[in-house]
Every structure is written in C-alpha cells, then in structure tokens.
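Lab notes, practical 5.
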Amino acid sequence: MTQKFVMGSPLYRMEQELKRNGIMLSRQTMSNWLLKVSADWLEPLYKCLYELLLKETVLHADETTLQVLHEDGKKAQTKSYMWLYRTSGCCERPIVLYDYQPDRKATRPKEFLDGFSGYLHADGYAGYHSLPPSIAVVGCWAHARRKFDEALNGMSEKDRKGCAALTGKRYCDKLFAIEKDLEKLTPESRFEERQKQAKPVLDEFLSWLQAQKAAPKSVLGKAAYYTLDQWTYLERYLEDGRLEISNNRAERSIKPFVIDRKSFLFVNTPRGATGSAVMFSIIETAKENGLNPYKYLTYIFREAPNMDLDDHQQLESLLPWNAPNDCKIPNAES
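Output from the prediction step:
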C-alpha cells in the first residue's frame, strides 16, 4: 500500500520485481489484498474522519480526472473524477479525504457536503456555486492571477511592458504580498489588517477591471471577464481572518494522486477507484498529521482486527492524532 500510494509504484511493477526475486505473486492477488484490508479496516476510519470533516466550518475542495476501464454504461475512455475535500489551515487536526465519483456533476459536492455549514474554498468551477446557502464559496486568487499570467505569456517581451495584462497581474501580486505579511497574525488581527490593506487594493482593482475594453475572446479579455465573473467569491476571503486568499491548500493535497496517476494511468473498476480513494485519504491525512504512513498503517492493521469498530471510542483511538509516538516522523511539523 505504501509503495503504491506513497511511492507511486504500480502493482504491475511490484509483480515484476517480485518475480525477478523468485516470488510468484500476481498483481490481482495484491489488488484483492489491498481492497480487502481497505474495506475491513480503513473504511470505518474513513467514515469517522468524514463525520469530523463535516463538523468543521472552513474547508477546501478540488477535483481531477480519473480513467476507470470497466464502468457500467460508460466507455473506457470516458472521464471519471476523484474529488478532494480537506480541512483548512485554521484546523488543529488536518483531515484530507478523497471521493471517487463517475462524473463532475454539481450534485457530487452537494451530496458529499450534506450537513456541512460554513466556508468552502474552491476554484471557479460552476458546480460549487450551486451549493446550498449554508455553504459560502471562497474563490481562488491563484486562479485569477494565472489568467493574467497566461495573457502575458502570449506576448512578446517588448509588448509586455506597461500592458494591461501586466497591470492586472501586479494587482494580484500585491494582494498576495499583503497576505504574506499577515500570515503570522491571529485570524482576528488578520481580518482587521485586510480591511485596511487589502480592501483598498481590491476596490481599485475592481474599478480598473470594469474600465477595461478588451475583446471578450482575447487573452486579456478572458482574464478580465473571469475575474469579474468570480468577484463575489474572490473578495469573500475578506469576511473572516481564517480564510485563505487561494485554494492552493487543496491543490497541494490532490497533487499526490495526480503524480501517482501518471504511473498507474487508470483504474480497472469502480470498486478499485473507491478503495483507492479510501487508501489515499488515510495516507494523506497521516502525512498531514506528521505520521510515517508505513508505520501508521502497520499500527492500524495490528490493532483494528482486535477492536470493535462499531464502538466509537475504540475507533477514535485509531485516528492519526491518537497514534503512538513511534508512528510519528521525527521532528515533523504537524
């Protein structure tokens, strides 16, 4: 499990390596082992973490594609999706959960976040904007900045000087520079300083955007239109000092899956995709809590079979922050 989900080594490579050492162990057998232990011992833990996640008041979300070869009613080339939901930086006990779904419909985050009330950091995907009123979506300034950066990349060095795209990017850079100066403040102080420092920049930036006359389909027009269209969500981080200026936290958490996907390329069945979501979740949550994934999984598989996992107290003893010290990475920052 560690080799596949931490080191990114597909089962077929493990099968080949074992065969070279005289061990006849098929990838199918290894896959069945992984899915069995995941269903028996990791899924109850995943459900417990899910319940705790929904009690938070600030979350992040993201999604990426996944190819599932054998899925009812779909061609093998059709895109499926791995969604990610995680706690924010204000949470003392980080939780990172993956959720496999066959599509990218807006109903997916709505179903997963049923019972959650608070702020949700997300990108500009419209599916997040149809969530219930109890969930306030916070936009991502990294995405807005990227639009102006893309506009600049399409220009020659000579044309960039003093151009509107550069002005737009500089507004974004100024907002990020303010956040960097405020990162060590308490949420209360950060809220106050944002009103003094960031809000005037945002007001000026909005006036500048509204004055632009770029063609909608031009690279600058696309950047300006995107930012104006997302403005309600982009400025929302001013509402609470716990909120972040970007959704980079979610992007960093989904990256391990994206990197591993380059190795395994696809998943055979929906059952395998669901099992992978559970295993990735436990491993990434362990890493976020400063644990060695191999030692933490060993701890779970040693203790869980002797527990009554319907007993909430016993199940909670397996949570990452309750793991013994020998599961922790020396000098790891939690």
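Observations recorded by the TA: The chain has a mean pLDDT of 93. Residues 141-239 form one domain.
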